[in-house]
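Worked example 2:
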Amino acid sequence: MRLIRMLLVSALALASLSVHADQKDVARLTQLLEKSQTLTARFSQLTLDGSGTQLQETAGQMALQRPGLFNWHTDAPQEQLMVSDGKKVSLWDPDLEQVTIKTLDQRLTQTPALLLSGDVSKISQSFDISAKEAGDVIDFVLKPKTRDTLFDSLRLSFRKGVINDMQLIDSVGQRTNILFMNVRANEPIAANKFQFDIPKGADVIQE
């Protein structure tokens, strides 16, 4: 009985330490994200399958404003533009001359752009968060608490307090690596950057 009691006490103590560590990591991530009320950067994105074979490589420009506003523009030849006004997301494909408009729902808030620009206070409600620090780099690993998600794990990496890169891994092992360059924080961004005007003659799909 004494041994069982000791094991129980030890387990409860470890659980308490784990919760404390999680809260500390959440607080640190929240602090780093909230530092940047606006963010602009150049990005490069590489997608690999589960065996490491390259599937796609793209680059582009992004602009974010907290909470929930973003403009994510992928360069030609695979050009696409994704714009959020905080309520709806418009995805424009110029090759197809087609725009898809979606209401901003829970699944969309798990996209890279909205994870960086969304409501920081809600992150810990959706993810288990852990951190690892080495020198001037700190990595946060986010694991969704529900199964209905776009990825199985996400790593956010900050260098000297500035977002540097992120990696998403899905249920079949596909990895998407996004590297951010020329990052600028808290500079004014024109309001029309987060508005999308449907081009004349475009096909419109409402979802």
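The first helix runs from residue 2 to 34. Helices lie at 2-34, 112-117, 123-126.
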